[in-house]
Amino acid sequence: MTLTERGLTSIFLAKEYGVTVFAADLWISATDNYERIKSMGLEDKIIPIHAGAYDLPFAHECFDVAVCADAYHYFGVEGSYLKNYLAPLVKKGGQIAVAVLELKKEFTHGAPAELLPYWFEDMNYHSCDWWYNLWKTSDSFSIKECKELKWLEEAWKDWLSCDNDYARRDIGVMELRVEITLIWFQSQLLSCELDF
Q1: How far apart are CA 40 and CA 149, in angstroms?
Q2: Counting CB atoms within 10 angstroms of each CB, which of 40, 46, 180, 183 has the fewest?
Q3: 151-163 pLDDT tens trace
Q4: Degrees (nearest 5) of the Cα angle 129, 135, 159?
Q5: Whole-number Å distance between alpha carbons of 171 and 16
Q6: Is residue 148 a contact partner of residue 128, using CB atoms and an 8 Å limit?
Q7: In 10 A of CB 185, how many CB atoms?
Q8: What is the pTM of this model?
Q9: How far, in Å, CA of 58 to CA of 55, rounded?
C-alpha cells in the first residue's frame, strides 16, 4: 500500500519491483490516477483508491509493506497516527517506510520572519530528530533507520525546475537558504496487537 500524491510512488514500485500496489490518495481521484496508471500499462499492478489517511478502507494485517512518500507530514504529526491507523494495516514482521521533506533542525521560536510569506498554519515540517522522537514512543514497531537521504540536492533541483506553481513559489524559500532536508524512516513491525 502507498500513501502518496498522484500515484508516482506506486508507479515506481510496480515498474521497478513488479509488486501489486494499492495506491491511496486523497487529493487525486481514483479515476484520474487510474488513467495515469493505464497510460503506463500498469493497470494490472496498481489499484487506485480515493481515501484519506484517517479512513483507509483496508483490513488489518493485509499488507507486507506500507510506503508513504511526501504526504506523512500532513496527517502523521499526531503521536497516535502510526500506531492507530497505519501500523494495524501491516502484517506482523512487515515494514513501514516514510519519506518526508523536513527541516534540518527545529525552529526554536517559530518560523523565521523571512520565511513567513511561504509558511502557512499547520505546515508540520519538523527535523529528523523530532520525527524519530515521535516514532520511538511506540512499542508496536522498532525503527530500523531514520536519516537524511543522500540525493536531496538532486531532488530539489528536479522539483524547482518543473512547471508547477508550488515549485516556482519554493524557489523563493530556497533563496532564503532555509535548511530543509528529506528524511527517510523505516520500521519493522513487531506487533499489531494494539491497545485502544
Answers
A1: 28
A2: 40
A3: 666 766 776 777 8
A4: 60
A5: 31
A6: yes
A7: 23
A8: 0.76
A9: 9
